[in-house]
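hey m, so remember when u said the C-alpha cells were messed up on ur end? i reran from scratch. heres the input so u can diff it against urs
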Amino acid sequence: MSYKQKYLEQALIPGIFKNEFSGSVAWQCPSNIALIKYWGKQPNQIPMNASLSMTLEKAVTKTEIAYNYSESREKINIDYYFHGQRKKVFEKRLLDYFKDLTEYFPFLDKLELFIRSDNSFPHSTGIASSASAFGAIALCLTEIEYHLKGESVGTAEFYNKASFIARLGSGSASRSIFGGLVEWGRHESVKGSTDETAIQVSKIIHPYFKNFQDFILILDKGKKDISSADGHNLMNSNPYASTRFQQAHSNLNELIHAIQRGNMEKFINIVEAEAMNLHAMMMTSSPGYMLMKPGTVEVIEKIKRFRTKSEMPVCYTLDAGANVHFLGPQSCKPVMVDFVENELKSCCFDGDYIQDRMGNGPEKIKDE
C-alpha cells in the first residue's frame, strides 16, 4: 500500500472531531542543502530523480499555528505573518496548499488559522526557505491531527506523515523533516526509499562525515529572478533533462558509497559536479536563465585555490541561487573559519554569512 492510500484511509476514520475546539502548536524546522540535486518533477510533487541532502542546524524557520475549529464554518480562513508582516501573496499559496490537503486532513476546511513564522536566514535567495517553511507547517498540521486522534507526537510514523505532507507543498521540504543526511526518491541504493517521503540515511555514514560544517556565504539577498517552481517546470522541455536525471541517479549511488567509506576525494568531485550540473540545466533551459552572480564565481574559484594550496578536504555547493555553501569536516573547522573571515567575508553582502553545520532535524517548540 502506498503512503497516499494509507493516509487517505486514515482520514476516513470517523469520530475524531468535536463540534468546537481550539489550540496552538509550534515547530522549528531546518533548511537543508542538497548534495545530489533534485531539479524537475512530475505532477503531485514526484521527483524526476532521487536526491540527497544535509539537514542544517542554524538556518531554520519557526512557525506557530493558532487554530479554531467550528463545525459551522464553511471554508478555511488564514492569516499569515512573516517576521510580523502580513503576507497575503503567501496566504493565497497556503490556501491552495491546504485545499489540496483536505483529503488527508478533513478538518482543515473548518479551521480558522493564525500563522506566525520567522526565518533565521534570508528567504527566496536559494537557501531552501520553502523547505523549512513547508516543513514547519506540515509538522504543525500533523501534530493537530495527532492531538485530535489522541496519538503520540514524535513517533517514526508521525515524521513519515509530516514528510509526506511537507512534500506536497515543497519537494525539498520532505527532506527537512529528518536530521543528518536525508534521501528522497526511489533509489535501489537506499532501502525503503520512496518518491512519497524522505528517509534518513545518517546511520550508514562514515564518522568522517558526521558534524559536517557548512558556511553559507550570503552573496545576494535579493529575490531570485525565477522561482524554483518555474525552474522545475522548464525541465520539461530541456533537451538535456533525461541525461541529467540518469546522471543524478548514478551520482547518488556513487556518493553514498563515498560517504560509507569516508572517501572525501570522490565526495568533493561529485558534490561540486552536482552544483555545476544544476546551474547548467538552468542555462540550457528555454528560456535560459542564470542565478549565479559574478561573486558566486569569484568565491568558487577562491575555494578551489584554497583547497589546492592548503590540501584541506573542503568543497563548495550551490542551491538554486547565487549563494555558496562552503563545506568541510569538523576537523577543518578552525582553518575554514580563518579562510572565511580573511578571504571570503569581503565577498559577502554586507559581510554576512551563516556558520552552520549538520543538524539533528526539527524541534517542537514548547509552550512558554
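this time it looks ok to me. The first strand starts at residue 20 and ends at 36. if urs says something different then somethings off w ur setup not the seq
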